[in-house]
Amino acid sequence: MSAFSTKDQCDLWSPGSRKDSSFDVRDNLFHVEGLKESTGPYSSMVEVQCIYKDSHKLGDIEPLLQNFRSIVSRLEVIDPGKLSHEEKLAFWINIHNALVMHAFLSYGIPQKTVKRVYLLLKAAYNVGGHVISANVIQNSILGCRVSNPGKWLRLLLSSREKFKAGDERRTYAIEHPEPLLHFALCSGNHSDPAVRVYTPNRVFQELEAAKEEYIRATFGLKKDQKVVLPKVVESFAKDSGLLPAGVLEMIQQSLPESLTRSIKMIQQKNSHKNIEYVPHNFSFRYQIMKELVKCLV
């Protein structure tokens, strides 16, 4: 069994206030200073700003819930240890994002920081006969520490999730770290990357695309010619060993040609003083690829 009851999903997604539930291309999706418009896939994604309960509509989505429960139950007989590195990447990204969304649907959105941290520790699926939480996936399987509220508490508790010698779950972990995971894992925060489905045969191309699309949607440029970027990019840069000059080069490759001239001018200056990383916004929000909405609403 998973850590969720078979009758726990009485909450429904509420996709924002716009009639078409999508972003307008003029919107500054991440409220980044200096960002005037959003382009690319992020400009047409569905935004989920809250969850509300409506028992009357539960019957309408019961077939979808039954199908989802059936899929989750199959995880009990899967052995992720037999998967290749690429297969593990796609598998665990998808499981992580689905598990966190399921947790919010089941328990609601905790308003207090401590409760949100505990939610990642509490919510879990049975995968291959082992209890696997979102925190275990992040820290022990994928080795990617994403931005989170109450970091001091999570660091204290994360040691409990480390696989000890002889733990069968050690075979579930990926072969080596993948910094690009910062652009794939979503915990329902405003600053998180969008939710999408990843496939084993194209996972690296999909991760690269996710990186470029996220940067393009969150990049800002102040009047004093200072580049503004989210903490997600900073975390990726640290894990990748990128110096400020390398970050600017990466940004330039992700932006449309109309903006690259500004980056080239900044590259000629003192790079480390011309990049500002804005704090992660932990308020609740999901951005979802339109093709996935039918499976979630």
Automatic annotation (TrEMBL):
Q: Which InterPro entries match?
A: DUF547
Domain (DUF547): residue spans on this chain: 82-215
Q: What is this protein called?
A: DUF547 domain-containing protein
Organism field: Solanum tuberosum (Potato)
